[in-house]
Amino acid sequence: MRKGDMHGSPAVRARGITKSFGDVVALDGVDLDVAHGQVHGLVGPNGAGKTTLLGLLLGLAVADGGRLEILGTPVGRTLAVPDGVAGFVDGPGLYPSLTARQNLSALAALARYDTGGATGVDDALEQVGLTDVAGDRVRGFSLGMRQRLGLAAALLTKPRLLVLDEPANGLDPAGKNHVHRVITGLAADGTAVVLSSHRMDDLAALCSEVTILAAGRVVFSGPVSKLAAESGELDYRLLTSDPAAARRLVSQTPGLRVAPGRDPAARPDADVLVVRGPVPAIDELVVRLVRAGVALRELAPVVTPLEAAFLALTGTGTVPTKADREDL
Q1: Lowest mean pLDDT among 4-8, 13-17, 312-316
Q2: Both 282 and 134 in a single domain?
Q3: What is the C-alpha separation between 322 and 327, in angstroms, rounded?
Q4: 131-163: buried (b, 16+ CB within 10 Å) or exposed (e) per residue?
Q5: Which keywords accompany this UniProt record (predicted)?
Q6: In whole angstroms, what is the distance from residue 59 CA to residue 191 CA?
Q7: Would you say 314 and 306 are in contact if contact means Cβ atoms under 8 Å apart?
Q8: Same structural domain for residues 72 and 144?
Q9: For position 124, which CATH number holds?
Q10: Do 172 and 94 share a structural domain?
């Protein structure tokens, strides 16, 4: 099933999807393609339509118009999706009075999943790093632990399409590592993963492609590598063995300048230059530094290309957050 899926039809194909709630247009002609074995990120400001789109993929809502195909099956005007789809929106549904292990066993029994019994449940708990708290009641779990338990529940279905809303929400570094390993492992085995997140670093680390929504419309969809071209100018931290020489070379490189308001003389880390310019100019600067014999010790974007592209393409001044949960 898994590897072969990657050579057939995509896991998700959406064309012209529309969805309104009264006078509010949540999705306005959205196209989306997600291949098997791909981690596809969904990002947008509050109210962009991300949650609505995720709900359609999970069968929690139906589109008003357009065509949606999931795992090779056309999805009509009923609340149903093909077998092999799993995930959660607005957090997983759990029983607070039951333990983590009991939750998974109950969910599997309700949905009649063939999980392999207790072994399958324990394996899912181990994958998300919850073995040590398998016997604890969920009412005492943190937000991050609940997110990981929701992911474990999805793993029981052996999904071919996994849909996750803010899977890293509330996670500590250890929990985030567990979730990242699970997601990348599933994708390597052929599962398509669609996830939304306001954490641009997570999306950049996990996703091969992203779709950016604004006001219910797609403003970008494609490989993360293409976003640098959409970002315009970026700010980069530059640390070298010779800050004075580096500053001179920056001034001599067409398209580059020290970022306004970020003069290193006024900074506690005065050896660090913050330079602004397009990616090709940054590449040219690196060549000039090497030719001049200046060692390059650090070169990193102050704001990731994904975050910069989000700001440029959506016309917002801030990256998306889950505060107040305004998204439709």
Answers
A1: 4-8
A2: no
A3: 8
A4: eebbeeebeebeebbbbbbbbbbbbbbbbbbbb
A5: ATP-binding, Nucleotide-binding, Transport
A6: 18
A7: no
A8: yes
A9: 3.40.50.300
A10: yes
Question: Taking Cα atoms as reference points, which of 17, 10, 13, 75 lies closest to residue 217?
Answer: 17
Q: How far apart are CA 211 and CA 257, in angstroms?
A: 31
6 and 133 both lie in a single domain: yes
Q: Containing domain of residue 78, as a range?
A: 2-228
269 and 188 within one domain? no
Shared-domain flag, residues 15 and 45: yes
Strands (E), the chain: 12-21, 24-34, 39-43, 65-70, 73-74, 85-88, 161-165, 192-196, 209-214, 217-223, 234-240, 257-258, 272-277, 296-301
Flag whether 50 is in a domain. Answer: yes
The confidence score (pLDDT) of residue 231 equals 61
Average pLDDT, the chain: 85
Same domain, 122 and 271: no
What residues have CB less than 8 Å from 121, skipping those under 6 apart? 101, 104, 105, 108, 115, 156
Whole-number Å distance between alpha carbons of 310 and 220 = 9
Dist. CA 220–CA 307, nearest whole Å:
13
- Predicted TM-score (pTM) of the model is 0.77
Split into its structural domains, the chain has a count of 2
pLDDT band at 266 (very low <50, low <70, confident <90, very high): very low
Alpha helix positions (H), 49-199? 50-57, 100-111, 118-127, 143-155, 173-188
pLDDT higher at 233 or 65: 65
DSSP 8-state class, residue 56 = H
DSSP string covering 222-259:
EEGGGHHHHS-SEEEEEEES-HHHHHHHHHHSTT-EEP
Q: What are the backbone dihedrals phi and psi of residue 260, each rounded to the nearest 5 degrees, phi first?
A: -55, 140
